[in-house]
Amino acid sequence: MNNYPLASSTWNEKEINAIHAVIAKDMFTMGEKVAEFEHDFAQYIGGEYCVMVNSGSSANLLGIAALFYRKINSLKPGDEVIVPAVSWSTTYTPLHQYGLKLKFVDIDLQTLNYDLDALESAVSDKTRLIVAVNLLGNPNNFDQITHIVAHRNIIIFEDNCESMGAEYKDKKAGGFGIIGTFSTFYSHHIATMEGGMLVTDDEEIYHILCSIRSHGWTRNLPKINKISNKTDDPFEESFKFVLPGYNLRPIEMSGAIGIEQLKKLPFFLQKRRDNAAYFKQLFTESNDFFIQQEIENSSWFGFSLIIKPESLLKRKDVIRKLQQNAIECRPIVSGNFTKNKVMKYFDYEIHDKLNNADYLHSHGFFVGNHHIDISEQIHYLHDVLSS
């Protein structure tokens, strides 16, 4: 590793051989390897069904769309959805695209997930959906979120794109909502070129996802399904459209790579957690920085650092120092997303104040974690910041 990069490749000859095997078959569109990876991934998460798409962003779009096409308890334009103020742009964009009203809620400065008191006070009679984003590998407190929505007609949608392999009460993150979404982008826990996954236990939602992933047609549906009276005639079913759809399909090579990456994931996670243990050893007692506090068993996407109010450090000076020493760093996801100009297009409100998100926005940054031992890089980071 060259000093301290943000991410590194997780591939070796296993992935290269998987690509060559697909090339040898001369069939590159979504096929048996994608289906095999979907099966394996559902088993890993502990869900009934899995659908692979071409990115985690597409997974969020497809998942939100599916909730509008259910026969019972479907979402409607104008419904209120609660979101955390800190997340990635494509957590929010599908909500806007489907006409939902976003209510932004503050985050907890320690965990970087929802401020649970703020979340509870934000829930109203109009709330139909809560998007639970597990940030930088950290699962939410799903006991408390479940308590907040108890006896209410509120759906939980789980954006787990940064937290594959995280666990809460021995259950995999991404398995707590009606749908959980995942990303397999290069810098994430496993990498399939580009890619994303959706996991659900709801058979109707699964069938909707299979249809709208591929144009809204019936071709990829089983004969007996929840959305179409499908015939036995493949010609008739080849171009029969039942839902407004997209083309968000992955390529067959991504499925083949995913099969190999998933086998390695337990090892990758152990290395990330070992790195995190060393990071916490060096930074937990820091006079200058808050670090992310783990809820149950994080998969440690990266390491966040937020300058403490009593510190004399200025973020611009810290970032300059890191850049001068070839330590890659980024803002903590989007910072406070409501500060972006794209907000002028959204129908939204801000619940109470976003004090913690504001503070993180101007005082926080994160550095990468990796699937290999980076204790030397973490020590180097500590030396640079201590200087």
Structure explained in plain terms:
The protein is α/β, with parallel strands linked by helices and 387 residues long. The chain folds into 2 domains: 13-260, Type I PLP-dependent aspartate aminotransferase-like (Major domain) (Aspartate Aminotransferase, domain 2); 266-386, Aspartate Aminotransferase, domain 1 (Alpha-Beta Complex), CATH 3.90.1150. Helix content is 37%, strand content 15%. The chain has helices spanning 13-25, 32-45, 56-68, 89-97, 116-122, 142-149, 203-213, 234-238, 252-283, 315-324, 355-363, 375-386, and strands spanning 49-53, 80-84, 101-105, 127-133, 155-159, 167-168, 171-172, 179-183, 196-200, 289-291, 302-307, 348-350, 364-368. α2 (32-45) packs parallel to α9 (252-283). The longest helix has 32 residues, at 252-283. The mean pLDDT is 97.
